[in-house]
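Recall that a protein's primary structure is simply its ordered list of amino acids. Everything else, from secondary elements to tertiary packing, is in principle encoded there. The following example makes that idea concrete.
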Amino acid sequence: MNNVDKRKIILVTDGDCCARETLEKAAYNIGGRCISQSGGNPTPLNSSEIVELIKQAKNDPVIVMVDDRGHTGMGKGELAMVGIINHPDIEVLGIIAVASNTQGVRGIKVDCSIDNEGNIVSAPVDKYGNTTLEKVLYGDTVDSINECNVPMIVGIGDIGKMEGHDMKEIGAPIITKALKEIMNKNIDIQK
């Protein structure tokens, strides 16, 4: 399958109930689709099941959640993520790497982050969306990204939370901006 025919997706390394509801709002904001069934803590579906749902989505970009529920090794979310990234019918536009307080992880270098005020910053952020002095973003579903070839990684705090800065009730502004930042690098799917 050539790149024109591949489904274009954005992976998000969070899937709890709050993240799912906020991502549904953000997907609407950008004119995309959210695979709500990929939400869960941990991810309830395997990569093959998620790919089938991606193929049924009405339009791109398709937002897919992957979550390890704090598991520090290769958990269900990371297994699903790697399978999706390597699927021949899927083009991953980017990954939203969500920060958490998980201990014992390597972390991931990000291309940029969106802080809790909606600023694009060159440093990682913590789960509250505050810029950190760390070289990497720490999260429970991010370590496998180190072995994957993806065009862009955007860091963000805890989706739908960040001390009220990203609530769906106010339009999910932080995650919406993170998704738009990835879309800006992929003008062929702009609405």
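The chain has four helices and seven strands. The radius of gyration is 15 Å.
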